[in-house]
Amino acid sequence: MASSRVPIIVFLFSLLTPLYIGGISCVAAHTTKDSSSQSKEFVLTLDQSNFTGTISYHDFVVVDFYAPWCGHCKKLDPEFEKAASILSSNNPMIALAKVDANDEKNKDLASEYDIKGFPTLKIIRDGGKTIQDYKGPRDAEGIVSYLKKQVGPASVEITSTEEGNALVDGDNIVIVGVFPEFSGEKFGVFLTLAEHLRLDYEFAHTLDAKLLPRGDSSVVGPIVRLFKPFDELVVDFKDFNLDALEKFVEEATIPTVTVFNLDPKNHPFVIKFFNTPNAKAMLFVNFSSKPFGAFESKYQDIANEHKGKGISFLIGDVEASQGAFQFFGIKEDHVPVMVINDDKEKYVKPNVEPHHLESWLKEYKDGKVTPYVKSEPVPEVNNQPVKVVVADNFNDIVFKSGKNVLLEFYAPWCGHCKKLAPILDKIAASFANDADVIIAKIDATANDIVHEGFDVKGYPTLYFKSASGKLLQYSGKRSKDKITSFIKKNKEKTNQQSSIKEEL
User: Fold this and answer.
1) How many helices (H) and strands (E) are present in the chain, helices listed first?
2) Which of 92, 125, 210, 364: disulfide with 130, CB 3.0–4.6 Å?
3) What pLDDT does residue 16 have?
């Protein structure tokens, strides 16, 4: 069985939307959308024709790859423009730009920069020599603050207790190097670490541990001290091998139990949780309910026991988890519910009790739990030209029918899918009298893909399954004539009786 997947960024936007979600010019683009409106736009408008020249001209560019139909993009747009206007006078220069990645002429750019969801923001330094994912806030003030730090030194010096207290404020992860002097191999390794990880964490260095608010003040270093707002709060590390340092930071910055609620301070850790390669155990419960304390205590004990064993733990409040419920196909009447997602399958235990948690996790590890399949209801009547496929009728329509099937994997919000819909209707009408051909569609965001062989990385994705079972992915032009020609070329004659009910 193959589970339905969408790019992680799309999922995270669905979870975290309440929070986060021209020619070359050395200052800004002075273009207008309407010649009568004389409004200044500070965000550079780029496409395939001027992209390379612009990023070569500017040392530091942040590019928003967007789609005009994307709701998250529309929400980001005024914040991005406001940030650009503020940053237009910054020294050193910080350029903000945008590319319509939905436009066919920018298809190669979207591919080159691995754009899998909208909006995707990339930081491009040194004329394209360094390309990094933007990982900061998506409000104007947050964008400005984050980017100003990115163009400054990767690590700042702490010279007073006031500076130390201001930096280590209890809400963020801060990594501080304590050194007897700012020279030598170990200090150089620390600065390299800071440069590598500056997008994710704040870095500082000091000659005196007494200037720092927590930890052993008698330390003289060299030592790396990591401050975090969870678990043990302060962790020290003395191995200055770069790989060892990066591994230490990666492991130390993951909470034993990640908390997902409406508090934006927790959201960066939620993103980190979903980006880890570990299997993911998620407990969704009403934080305001009386049993929450028992769940929280038991879950923390289980997470401590499994720390470092390839599974990460999250506890989510129902109030904040509607995007997760939709993504995993669970309902509020399942709450309290535990979900395990191991990148192969997902497993769901609805109406779980605190004393069930440990035993059900053990059953999962022993392979005794049946995977959960997300499916929309099977249509009672399915007689329209383009048949509706859901997870629970997937095999019946696509494989057991013995027919030639053209199947579209789509997303309801996808602009390309909306453009393709009337074309598929016309194709289906043209094959209405051909008993050997079925034209069908499946909402890949609401149903799991329950058969191996389908590689769905974007929408729409079209597959053709011949009568004998051969799978072909269609990658040609999405026109009625081209798709019809493709079907006629690859379809096979069949005399099998359909196993699909007559209402199809």
Assistant:
1) 15, 20
2) 125
3) 52
State the SS3 of 134-164: CCCCCCHHHHHHHHHHHHCCCEEECCCHHHH
Active site residue 414: yes
What is the average pLDDT across 137-159? 91
Secondary structure letter of residue 476 according to DSSP: S
Least confident of 260-269, 363-372, 416-425: 260-269
Which is nearest to 44 in space by CA: 92, 102, 85, 103? 85
Question: Is the pLDDT assigned to residue 254 strictly greater than 70?
Answer: yes
Spatial contact of 478 and 423, defined as CB atoms under 8 Å apart? yes
What are the angstrom distances between the C-alpha of 262 and each of 17, 266, 270, 426? 11, 8, 11, 45
Helices (H), 182-291: 185-197, 242-252, 267-275
| DSSP 3-state of 108 | helix
Cβ(327)–Cβ(338) below 8 Å: no
**Predicted pLDDT at 26:** 23
Which listed residue (6, 29, 73, 407) is catalytic? 73
Q: Tell which residue, 30, 47, 48, has the closest CA to residue 39.
A: 30
Quickly tell me which residue has 């009403």 as its tokens.
286
Catalytic hit among 417, 428, 444, 462: 417
User: Is 26 noted as a catalytic residue in this protein?
Assistant: no
Sheet architecture: strand order including 60-66 = 44-46, 95-100, 60-66, 120-125, 130-133
| Max Cα distance, the chain (Å) | 85
3-state secondary structure of 177: strand
Per-residue pLDDT of 28-79, as tens digits, reads 222 333 333 345 689 999 999 999 999 999 989 999 999 998 888 999 999 9
Pairing status of strand 223-227 against strand 234-237: antiparallel
Contacts of 409 by beta carbon, 8 Å cutoff, 6+ apart: 441, 442, 444, 449, 454, 456, 459, 460, 461, 462, 463
CA distances from 172 to 121, 266, 292 (A): 22, 10, 26
Exactly one of 6, 44, 70, 110 is catalytic; name it. 70
Would you say 41 and 29 are in contact if contact means Cβ atoms under 8 Å apart?
yes
